[in-house]
Amino acid sequence: MKKVWAIIRKDIITELRTKELLTSMLTFSLLVTVIFSFAFGFSTGLVRLAIPAMLWITFTFAGVLGLSRSFALEKEGNAVLGLLLTPTDRSLIYFGKMISNAVFVFIVGLIIVPMFVLFFNLDFLGTLLPLIPVMFLGSLGFVSVGTLFSAMAVNTRLREVLLPILLFPIIIPLIVSAVKLSGLVLEGKPLSDGASALQLLVAFDIIFIAACAVVFEYVIEES
Questions:
Q1: Residues with pLDDT less than 50, the chain
Q2: Total-model pTM
């Protein structure tokens, strides 16, 4: 855990100094939310049905924007070699990067929800609190796959384009489940009503975290 924490601490300190990831993700999220609010501002009935999808569209694209920079700093100046030369298992590098990415993405997710509450006149406590576990599970699964693909795409010239092409087909089950659970929350229903979607979300997280940790060793050495 000390080795994992060292990577997390390095990423957090770097972000506090540069503020690149959070600033770009939050700016993009605000812009998309404003566009959605103007687009659906005069269709009250339609908004209620579309909010879960709009929420996760905003979250997904903002997350991809952040993940595209996940290994960019390590690549500059071949700093990634420093990680590879450390006497530790490669999976620990993956977990360190994944957790730090999950922290940033989850923070952005928690800010996106109040944006939607503000722009679409939703109940703050009735929306934010039940959505926290959904955002957490969604962030974890999203980042677990995104961290692996970010390491794969970092060597390409068009990594900002390649990353979503690789990532989106894989996370379709996660997004569908998250949208369904978010819709239940906005309707005032308990998450237990979407037990199958919740089980799929949890299963996705467990399977892909384990699989990506194993595959990461080969991906990072090719990078």
A1: none
A2: 0.86
